[in-house]
Design goal:
The protein is α/β, with parallel strands linked by helices. It folds into two domains: 117 residues, 2,3-Dihydroxybiphenyl 1,2-Dioxygenase, domain 1; 159 residues, 2,3-Dihydroxybiphenyl 1,2-Dioxygenase, domain 1. It contains six helices and 17 strands.
């Protein structure tokens, strides 16, 4: 594996037809803070995160995943990664340049193998953040993003070869074969995962809560608010993290989680978990069964933004 130049996940950017409804959901219900919200563009921060924002919403005629952004340690690493991708024939959307988004920085964008726009940046100003207090049921940070792919083996190979992500674990089913791959770019069990799906789309975006109590309080707030629950509450085996999945107003799945496993990368060996075993999907046995309803909701709508860079 080549040198790992990506350090962490920064933010996920969504294009949404009903911008006002989405903004209301992600602030009032989900618990993100609007750093900037004007002219149909909102940058929403997680209270405990030094990242300038964890979610960007953009008003658009059609729903899509605009981009997924990652961090690098230095501008030199940004340049090195861009050169590496160019040499490997990866399509760059932009060359490394100064960024005009909140916090500035230096970065570039490219298409992954499925046509998603990916951004990598360094030297972004640290946001003034705070310690999330006991009982506060608001996201601490963006934890991970899971993507659907009709050719997940190729997508996993792309992220492993070009971006040096490492495989943590894989989910399989006796009839369907391997179905989900968990990939890490630091010691956390996964920053991204690739799921086998019928089309390219966002599977879900996950947000870390302070602890179990805050995770359950947040889950309860959404249930009382009438937000459609897809799956949970429970605890996965792969990653050992808690999960409660809900749908935002445009049908994107978003998750509250906590206690994602931190690995010793020198000694870790990936598992192949059979998710027909109920203990694999939910160690607690408290969530609704992992069946067709959950899978169908997680497929999301086909992303029509593939190989089309977002306008901002």
């Amino acid at each position: 594996m080549t040198e790992r130049l990506i350090t962490h996940l920064r933010h996920v950017d969504l294009a949404v037809p009903d911008y006002d409804k989405q903004l209301e959901f992600y602030t009032t219900m989900w618990g993100l803070e609007p750093e900037i919200a004007e002219d149909g563009l909102a940058f929403l921060a997680a209270a405990g995160s030094p990242e300038q924002y964890s979610v960007r919403l953009r008003r658009a005629e059609e729903k899509r995943l605009d981009l997924i952004a990652f961090g690098a340690a230095t501008s030199a690493d940004v340049d090195a990664l861009a050169e590496r991708l160019l040499a490997d024939g990866v399509t760059l959307v932009t060359r490394p340049e100064r960024l005009q988004t909140p916090g500035g920085g230096y970065g570039f964008r490219f298409f992954d193998i499925d046509g998603r726009t990916i951004e990598v940046s360094a030297d972004v100003a640290v946001r003034r953040h705070r310690k999330v207090e006991e009982g506060e049921a608001v996201p601490v940070k963006l934890s991970h993003v899971v993507m659907n792919s009709p050719n997940p083996e190729a997508a996993v190979a792309f992220y492993s070869k070009h971006l040096s992500f490492a495989l943590s674990d894989t989910l399989m089913h006796p009839r369907m074969g391997e179905m989900m791959w968990f990939l890490r770019t630091n010691r956390f069990h996964h920053s991204v995962a690739i799921a086998r799906g019928p089309h390219v789309s966002l599977h879900h975006a996950s947000f870390e809560m302070r602890g179990i109590d805050e995770y359950m309080r947040g889950t309860g707030r959404l249930l009382r608010g009438g937000i459609e629950k897809v799956w949970g509450p429970g605890r996965h085996m792969a990653g050992n993290n808690t999960f409660s999945y809900f749908l935002d107003p445009h049908g994107n799945t978003v998750e509250y989680t906590t206690e994602l496993e931190v690995l010793d990368e020198d000694s870790w060996h990936p598992h192949l978990y059979d998710f027909s075993d109920p203990m694999v999907t939910d160690q607690w046995g408290t969530a609704n069964p992992m069946e067709e309803f959950v899978a169908r909701k997680s497929f999301n709508d086909p992303d029509r933004g593939c190989f089309v860079a977002p306008p901002v």
